[in-house]
From TrEMBL, chain A:
Main location (coarse class): membrane
One matching Pfam family: BPD_transp_1
PROSITE patterns: ABC_TM1
Any single GO CC term annotated in Swiss-Prot or TrEMBL for this entry: plasma membrane
UniProt keywords, alphabetically: Cell membrane, Membrane, Transmembrane, Transmembrane helix, Transport
Gene3D superfamilies in the record: MetI-like (1.10.3720.10)
Family per record: Belongs to the binding-protein-dependent transport system permease family.
Subcellular location: Cell membrane
GO biological process: transmembrane transport
Membrane topology: Multi-pass membrane protein
Official protein name in the record: Carbohydrate ABC transporter permease
TrEMBL record, chain B:
Lineage per the UniProt record: Bacteria, Bacillati, Actinomycetota, Actinomycetes, Micrococcales
InterPro entries: ABC_transporter_permease, MetI-like, MetI-like_sf
Disordered: annotated segments: 1-27
Species per Swiss-Prot/TrEMBL record: Microbacterium hatanonis
Record's protein name: Sugar ABC transporter permease
Domain ABC transmembrane type-1: 93-304
Gene3D superfamilies listed in its UniProt record: MetI-like
Amino acid sequence: MRQPLALRLGRHALLITGAAVVIVPFLWMFTTSLQSRAETYTNTSVIPTSWNWQNYLTAWEAAPFGQYYLNSVVMAVGIVSSHLVFDAMAAYAFARLTFPFRNTIFVVLLAALMVPTFVTIIPAYTIVADLGWIDTYAALIVPRMADVFGIILLRQFFVSIPQELEDAARIDGCSRIGTFLRIIVPLSRPAFATLAIFSFLFAWNDFLWPLLVTNTDEVRTIQIGLSSFVGRYGTSWNYLMAGTLTATIPSILVFLFFQRALVRGITTSGLKD
Amino acid sequence: MTSVPTRIRPAQSASGGSAPTRRRRRGDRDQVITALMFLVPALAILGVFVVYPIINAGYTSLTSWNGFDPVKEFVGLDNYVRLAQDPAFWNSLLVTVVYATGVCVLSVATGLAVALLLDAPMRGRGFYRSIYFLPAVTSSVAAAIVWKYMLDPAGFVNALLAQVGIIGPDWLQERWLALGALTALTVWKNVGFNAVLYLTALQALPPAVYEAAQLDGANAWRRLRHMTIPLLAPMTFFVVVQALITSFQAFDLVYVLTEGGPRGGTDVLGMFMYRTAFRLGDFGYGTAIAFVTLLLVLGVTLVQWRASGSGRSDR
């Protein structure tokens, strides 16, 4: 049923007001990133009044953002690809295979998911330190190569694929690994896409763990670089905003391109970062 | 959790079953071997970096340890006794509880409001949803940096206030104002997320009930008050628990926005733990703080389980 015009207009008015409040910090970040140093103290417009694009170059030269970026990319690629492989394998075992203690192991993993990172972070840090991995890519990637969230997400999806498809392939002589690779994996593309996006955003935006295990610019990720930039260039807001915007762009792009998968992931799993 | 198909029965019914039991046993063994192969990578990583650390943390919290000594000196419950007597801990707990309460109330209010506005079929719904969701995909560090700048005495917020003749305070230098700013930042970051959750719940509501209520003459406000809000109760509960858990674990936003200041005004449990362990090198005490946080989160989760078990009928 169609609603009266006044109601529809009122609805849009409220939504636009809310959207404006939500979006202002982003506009402000963009505007400031283009201002001259003097302007940052006097101008409060969210519409750019000057266009100092060289601020981006200055910021990029003031800190090794290129290196930070590369490190974040390496970490994200490592984490996303291993999640897609290892989480999928484990999810398949939990969804389709019988083995001793299956439910017990699954429940232990579910319980571990509820434990705050703070509890595990000190011992995990100690293990990584004992392995001599501090300040290496290994410290950033290896401890996160599998995650419970991904296993649950994929398992839910695998369970919903009809058993008959797999049975038919088995009768035709396909091995279990074969059915996994040729039936389950191709049919689960949407679930893999969702997991990839979540894993990427998680890795790209992660802060506490990279903060602990990196000490030098050679392995520091973009988020850590950015937060140390605050201390060093805290008053040069224009450069700081240029750096912040640059660091945010990959997340925003991924979001804009893959929104649908992201929303699907939230509604099926209800998980917050 | 939905239940899993427990056994794959491939060939025996089709092939007539001359030796069904033997074949099945071999099938089982194959299956266990495949399962093991498939599980090893994930379980090894999760075991070493998640499950074992939980157990290890339980022990570490009972020791006095600076993070370097090879030997951890066992001190029993000393760390917990010390926590109970530590004013910094009580301050941190108070700050966290006030923060978590604010985040919960505002998360429900903003999430529900946006979802209700977006619920009807309308032009531009996808566009609005994208805008509201944008903060959720932005890193905490970037979000906190921008807010820190906007709340600077010379920043956007005070300049805006100056336009209407108000002299704005130094937001991040006043104890309760800083906590309010942190709360607002958290809610801003999660509004899209909560709206999406509420939107899913709204769209699952039975339209027939609404049509009946409308025929009976219930106006929009009464339908919202007496039908929608009660029917959404399970989702509200979920949103509240999620908000509680994330606020009890807050760290990134605080670290960048205020570093726990001014004078402990935003010193949430996560910040307190980080400082104790990684800045002061008091790992035993730091782990005890983490464990108390765990107990609080666990308490909240258990309450959620019990409540959602009884309130699930309409999902």
